[in-house]
Every structure is written in C-alpha cells, then in structure tokens.
Write a structure and sequence with these properties.
The chain is an alpha/beta fold. It contains eleven helices and 15 strands.
Length: 255
C-alpha cells in the first residue's frame, strides 16, 4: 500500500474515534514497521489532526469540541462590554510595536477600532486579520495550521512553530475562563497556543467579561502570576482579586 493510501486510512480512523493505538495500526498494516507508523502519527500531529501520546494518537476532531457557544451567537452577546474592553486595550498599544491579538469576538472588536498606525500584528484569528487589513499601515501576520471552526482560530504545530519564531511586545489574550487559580480553556490546542504566546510576550494583557469570571474549564493556560494586566468589565470576586494582587497583576475595571 502506498504511503498516501495508508495515511488516508489512518485519517479515516482519526475521524471516527478519539484514540487509535499503535498496536491497532500494526494490526491494520502488518507489512509496515512500527517506526514507519510512528512517523505517520508524527505526520498527522504536524497537520494538526492528532496529538501523539503514549501508545498511539488522540484525534483532534474529538479534542477540539469546544465548550463555548457558537461563534455567530457569541458575536451578538456583551457587545458594550467588548467595546469597553477593546478601548482599554487600544490605549496600551504603541506605534512601532509587535503585538499579538488572540482569536474570538472580543479580538474582532479590538481589531475594528485598532488605530491605522505602523505596528506589526500577529493573530490566530483569520477574521481578525481580515478586519485589520482594512487599514493601510499595520503589518499583519497570521499563523499557519488547522482552522478550528468553533472559535475561528488557527491551531496546531505549524502555529506554535510560527509563534516561537517571532518576538511579541504585548499580547492580548481572551481566555474561556478565569478564576483565582488562573486562566483555563475548553480546547486543548487553543490552550497550547495561548501558553506559547504568553511565554514569548514581554507583557500579557487579559481581557475578560462577566461570562468568563469563575469559569473553570479542563485545560490550564496559566496562573494569574503570568498575567501583567487583567482588564475586566466588572469588579473581581474577592478571592480572585486577592490572588491577582498577590501576583502583582494590575487590575483595570472598565465600568
């Protein structure tokens, strides 16, 4: 069997079950060495279709099932709050800097009011990038990889590799949930992207509205100690405020 044919069979398996074992692949392709099958798994990991784990691979189709509402619905929610958060974010942006904009509806609002100045913007959101290029001066980078339909964001190893190759002055992050324990996400690959951005950025600014407060999802992005500025549309719960102050995180309330 040709490599392309074998990988098409593996792709079908990844589309029908959350985990395929190396033993299962060896039974399906007895003429192929285990090393070759491991390379097949690595291939799908690079394509953003699987995650290599001990004993096999986990399918991204099942991991990327988001816990958030449909993007189109979220776009119509908390509009005033997003405008306030975006206004605070814009006040922090300086000409000539390298900035990162997360994906999501809040970032789309920020992109729409971004000043037409000379700075470099990197984003994981294709719709965010399209909004920014309506302006003449900003330079826009969009990472490569697999498109996550739930949040209209690009994820996967190519995206991580691109982010690892650039410098980021200030990163604007929108988590799915924020609590006293830190930032969380309902999507593994989104979480990995945010982790990488936070590790690269000189300054990390988190934008969040009421719907994100005290919401804890399966994947941990970072602790409050990794956040330089926390911008919220309402006062923080007491324990979250204590943890943020303990971490020397600046708190800005938009109301």
């Amino acid at each position: 069997m040709k490599v392309s044919s074998r990988r098409e069979v593996i792709r079908t398996l990844l589309g029908t079950k959350p985990f395929i074992s190396l033993e299962e692949l060896e039974e399906a392709f007895p003429e192929v060495s285990q090393m070759t099958l491991r390379r097949d798994i690595e291939y799908f990991e690079k394509q953003g279709e699987a995650i290599k784990v001990r004993g096999g691979a986990r399918s991204m189709k099942f991991i990327t099932t988001s816990m958030e509402d449909a993007f189109s619905k979220r776009l119509q929610e908390n509009v005033l709050s997003k405008e306030r958060l975006a206004s605070v974010a814009v006040s922090m942006i300086e000409t000539g800097r390298s900035i990162f904009l997360d994906s999501g509806t809040t970032m789309l609002t920020l992109a729409s009011i971004l000043p037409d100045e000379r700075f470099t913007v990197t984003t994981t959101g294709p719709n965010v990038a399209l909004e920014i290029i309506k302006k003449r001066r900003p330079m826009v980078n969009i990472v490569g990889g697999m498109l996550n339909r739930d949040n209209i964001s690009v994820v996967g190893n190519p995206a991580l590799e691109f982010i690892d190759s650039i410098n980021i002055d200030i990163a604007f992050i929108v988590p799915s949930g924020v609590s006293a324990d830190g930032l969380t996400s309902g999507n593994y690959t989104e979480c990995e992207i945010k982790k990488k951005v936070i590790s690269k950025a000189h300054k990390v600014v988190v934008l969040m509205n009421l719907s994100k407060i005290n919401k804890v999802l399966p994947y941990t992005v970072c602790s409050l100690a990794d956040v330089d500025v926390l911008v919220s549309d309402m006062p923080l719960p007491p324990e979250m405020r204590r943890q943020a102050e303990k971490a020397n995180t600046e708190i800005i309330i938009t109301q």
